[in-house]
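Fresh eyes needed here. Have a critical look at this protein's tokenised backbone.
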Amino acid sequence: MIAGLLQRLPALIALASPSPVSYLRLRPSTWSAPYQVWGVENREAALRLIPTAPDHCAAHLEIKAVDPTTNPYLLLGALQALVIDAVTHPCPLPDPIVGDPAAMDPVPVRLPSSLAEARTAFSQDNVLKTAMGELLHGSLLDSFAAEIQCVEDLALEEQVANACWWPLVGGIFVDQPKASRSLDV
């Protein structure tokens, strides 16, 4: 199951991090797990296996690239489809990564670093396309394209400000005039 999820993780990231701003967080060596690797208790791994948890369950598998902009229903439905495919079509599981993948030589494969890259991976994933159906899959591709288009001409600070639902405080935009601090979407 882990091997199958790991293989399809680039496509799943589009659903797990569906906002262009999501990718600002996915940076190496920050516990945000931007590499297509798995590990046991490794906070730098995109898929983190926790063998024993405080709730005494046998194991937990954490997908580190999920952020609050995700639609949990779409993500869980996609995960179900990918798990069924992984169990039906097993593939070999690579060795777990120990430590920070960014410090390895060679550095492992990076997950998509933008919504545009994730959208491309999502568009090419036949398991998700089949599970969702052409209409939903196509609608999501259109939605991702619209999100990308909305921010393509904005500075990073404006992208973040437009994605916030609370007012930014603490001098983040000290050098900008008040007119450019709008939080209207």
